[in-house]
UTP--glucose-1-phosphate uridylyltransferase
Amino acid sequence: MSTTSAVRKAVIPVAGLGTRFLPMTKAMPKEMLPVVDKPAIQYVVEEAVSVGIDDILMITGRNKRALEDHFDRVPSLEATLEEKGDAKKLAAIQESNNLGDIHYVRQGDPKGLGHAVLCAERHVGNEPFAVLLGDDLIDERDPLLGEMIRVQKETGGSVVALMEVPQETISSYGCADVTAVAGEDYVQINGLVEKPDPADAPSNLAIIGRYVLHPAVFEVLRETAPGRGGEIQLTDALQTLARREGEGGGVYGVVFRGRRYDTGDKLSYLKAVVTLACGRDDFGSDLRTWLKDFVADGAEAPVTER
């Protein structure tokens, strides 16, 4: 059993431009897009906090000030709600203020996920850490991050989250070549292939946006040359670590079979909002009834789709 330190810190890269959601994201970060009544980024932070991580670093870029404002106090708003006796709304906004100790570092130039992770080196130091991507929302009823932390502690390497997808869609993901580990419910990663042709893919296991990384990844990222688009790819660094033996070597995968909501494109985002809204205690039942009627009526979109 490895004596690896407990995971105390999480890194959340949020420097992306969100061009797929223009014009909405012209002046608002894509991470602030509402998912029912909370911005998408809050779900991600809450996931980290739920496993005991309360030191969170966001890797930001230009036009991301709204993220800092969201997790900061607004005393005037709190005072107004308190005067009105609106305890429910007051508690809701105070919840986002008190999720953890949140820090911010500018990425500067958008040089890829690997570069974003490298920007966290000084803050993280020499200890394992989690990386959570905001496009993937993991249902709070289906634990994933805690299991990944357990596997990292047991193996002493790095851990990625995997999910089975239809073979014909694997070309949209990074794909893992894996070997079963005897007596364990995780797998060992032999290699990672970025967006392979379905006929050439080594499996139907796609990489999703959760990682628990050994700090050896920083050394590798510093030596990783930019790839396609001039970006430093995290998968390239993980390839190197997968082949390494000794301290920080080895990459493992936890196959997630729970509920994951993809907010990375418009249709998937809308599905995520509807799915989570339907599960709400306060109005989920009414929404499900309305949706059944809407579908039964065969209603068509009132405007031309874009």
Observations:
- The first helix runs from residue 40 to 50.
